[in-house]
Design a protein that fits this description.
The complex is a heterodimer of chains A (331) and B (373). In chain A, 29% of the residues lie in helices and 21% in strands. By secondary structure, chain A is of the alpha/beta class. Chain A has a single domain (32-330), classed as LarA, N-terminal domain (Rossmann fold, 3-Layer(aba) Sandwich). In chain A, the strands form 3 sheets. In chain A, strands 1, 4, 5, 6, 9, 10, 11, 12 and 13 form a 9-stranded mixed β-sheet that branches. Chain A has a two-stranded antiparallel sheet with strand order 2-3. The longest helix of chain A has 18 residues, at 277-294. Chain A starts with a helix and ends with a strand. In chain B, 49% of the residues are buried. Chain B has one domain: TIM Barrel (Alpha-Beta Barrel), CATH 3.20.20. Chain B is 27% helix and 21% strand. In chain B, α5 packs parallel to α7 (233-245) and α8 packs parallel to α9 (303-316). Chain B contains 9 helices and 17 strands. The chains are: A alpha/beta (331), B alpha/beta (373).
Amino acid sequence: MKRREFIKGVGAGLAFGGAVLGGCKRDGSRAAVGRKGGPARVAVFQDQDVRQKGGLDPKRVGGMLERALKAAFGSPDAAAGLRSVIADGDVVGIKLNCLAGRPLSPTREVCDALAGVLKRAGVSTDDMFFFERAERDIRKGGFEVRRGGDGPRFVGNDSPGFNYEPEPEMSGQVGSCLSRIVTRRIDVMINLGVLKDHNLAGVGAGMKNLFGIIHNPNKYHEDGCDPYVADVLAFPVVQKKLRLTILDALTAQCEGGPGYLPAYAFEFNGILASVDPVALDRVAWDLIDKQRKKKGLPGLEKAGRPPRWIETARKRGLGEGDLSKIEVVSG
Amino acid sequence: MKRREFLKLPCAYVAGCALGGLAPRRVRAAENDRRFVHQAMWFKQLKDKKVQCQLCPRECEIADQERGWCGNRENEGGVLKTYVYGRPVSINNDPIEKKPFFHVRPGTKSLSISTAGCNMECQWCQNWELSQFRPEQIPARFGYVSPDRMVSIAGRAGSKTIAFTYGEPVVFYEYMLDIAKKSKTAGIPGVMVSNGYIQAEPMTELLKYLGAVKIDFKAYDRELYKKWCRGTLDPVLETMKLVKKKGVWLEMVHLTIPTLNDDPDEHKRLCEWVLENLGPDVPLHFTRFHPTYKVKNLPPTPPSTLERAYETARKAGIHYPYVGNLPGHEAENTRCHKCKETVIKRVGFTLLENKIVDGKCPKCGTKIPGLWK
């Protein structure tokens, strides 16, 4: 019996995965948590001892990611959770967000830890594609571009062999050529963003990071990026392939984003994860507002840039945007 | 292994790559080239390293590390930079009739250049593969081409003008300005083919060095500009008035699209505005639309629609209306507005005959407006 068949056979009886969360299916039709079969769940895990001797402790980062994924999937361990959304032989794309440069990009430690969990879940390191809009962004984030060889790839949409689809595709008001990494190269997408403010979108955490898979993101920043952020999430290929969103919140930022502005950066020392991208951003908004309050700044609503696209996405059934209906699992 | 099996292997590999998206049409190296990065003009610094671009009416407020709407102006730590200086993605020696300019040095070649980017997004854009992409998404196949070198290329190619065209030259303003300055000195005037979506101050500076401007006018309809082009009409009208006021030669193109901007009443209102604000001598080209980009559900413009628009303009008092993208049509020719003598004959982009003498009609001596030398 193949692994896929085994999981199909006993899936209903498993105490973890899509059944518990009412969410992710192995057939590629991702159903967001909270739409059916239980509340949306967002994991928010912190470790105040994660920084040691001026750097990050890879073991503690790995432990935190493990706990966050376990909670996000409701699984016995992180690898088991990932196995519930990744099939044998799947190629996994991890969308990074390196726009702000090294100080406010996903950290090497989180990427390494994620690669480790994916490997334990059965994904070959050669089938892991950490990707960004362009190779320039990969370098900005402090990573080396790696187009081949052994181990995970670090590539951009402009890396040889990728590029964008030749014709634009429509989703709501967005019409874009999509990244061929997403459309053709990978089977599963994990969105690995950063917990940060965005001067136009309000929140620049998970869903906004998906602007990096379209060729013309600059055209969709008007009106607080509403409904455009929701439109990008609604692209059929995104709905099919996006299975998990993770936020590297070791260093976060509550104002002045998406670039790095030290005055507003703070050490949250945390990792967020959810299979519901809308719920995750709603919680991110809440966390950013809390930090803004500490800094004496008005909330995003009062600041004139509430991320209205969260509600737009909720109305379209793309996930849960009502904070009162989201189960936040923290530790 | 049999010979047949051996031959099958590479075939299977190629087919597999193509299906899997691994065989790109154009293999290109990733670019991380600072040669094309140049400080932008026309911006204001704001707090928290933000800037406000003041080149076009959008006035994008751009946070650090972000780009403006056009996709090629980026805020680097509170300083706005253009990413397309010296980075043409298209260079062709086109007939000037292709721009189209019908009253500028007819029958000559115009070195036509463009970079990536645009500050509008017309849903029918005929050059969307240049205008709707960011610089790094289009290979810099010409490398760095300095303004001096561009003028030199034009000279060697026998071009009589340098046209800033295809995409939107407003978004490569600094590059265009520097080329225009040098090309004017070299006697090869720069001509701008634009949507006219630019602020008055930068346009005024630019006009000192340009020989002619052609505005791609979308419609005399504010709603269409907003909904279909993601721009606004009024700044475009102001730009045309400015060009006229500064005495720079101006032509207008109206890409006439079935159901979107083919209403005769709208054409009439447009002509009235032109007559009132620009005068009767501004050539007005009604050109044929072909489905592309995001408007593929409409048919090409019927010739009768263009002929109707032409007649509307003529009756309204426009001296030089034309139809375009209809090769061989009588209304491609230039006729003296006074005696109706055909003074220039064209087929498509090809000049067949130019009878103008010293800028005048050979039959009645009426001055035909334009840049003839």
